């Protein structure tokens, strides 16, 4: 089974003026859930894995193998991309590419602008030699992502449109992650996406725009962002919540037993949750 470059999937989203979700996977069950959902709806699947997720599946090679086994088991007929999310180092991006990833994100957003440009361009130059998609990030999202935590005022950390244009042009990235008011993890206050800022970014960049922190963001705001240029939306926390809730719900049943049925049920719950998000992002609901 062959993984698809994420760039190809995002170009399809651009043509259709919709977005595709990028869903966290931490196991064979969560990978199979997303592939089954995509196969049923005929919607491409993008997986996001931080290095912490990869540790649960045996490293980069183990993660690639896990996803490919799930593709084979589901008789997958839709494009599937495997994306390394929020990687902070050139070395780890190279390792993921060599292991078989079809896309990587180099996250230099915490660095000064010039350092972010230099690091991101270095990764893009290497990755493009192998036809691998590269995502860069400009601006910061408050909240937790894997083992990293960002604190501060969300508004002041949002992406500057003029800098975004320069960043894309100088780095050669295939897509750009921007900050317009979402947050990693669970929201502590209701989000308000800065659609006007998004419109300005969309006007000046010529690559697909990515929205991180999609979990918990109201559907109406998400779909407005899609109509104004967002082409990929990352969903991690909400997938894990769906799995966790499935265990809690089963434990309330009178005939509950600790057995493998717990994991069969969690896979089904994750699949149904992801199907709902796929429909939402494709503007089907």
Automatic annotation (TrEMBL):
The lineage of its organism: Bacteria, Bacillati, Bacillota, Clostridia, Lachnospirales. Zn(2+) 2 binds at residues 107, 137. This is Putative fructose-bisphosphate aldolase. GO terms for biological process: carbohydrate metabolic process. The keyword Magnesium does not apply. Its EC number is 4.1.2.13. The active site is at residue 85. Transmembrane segments: none annotated. Keywords: Lyase, Metal-binding, Zinc. Dihydroxyacetone phosphate binds at residues 185, 213-215, 234-237. Binds 2 Zn(2+) ions per subunit. One is catalytic and the other provides a structural contribution. The keyword Nucleotide-binding does not apply. Signal peptide: none annotated.
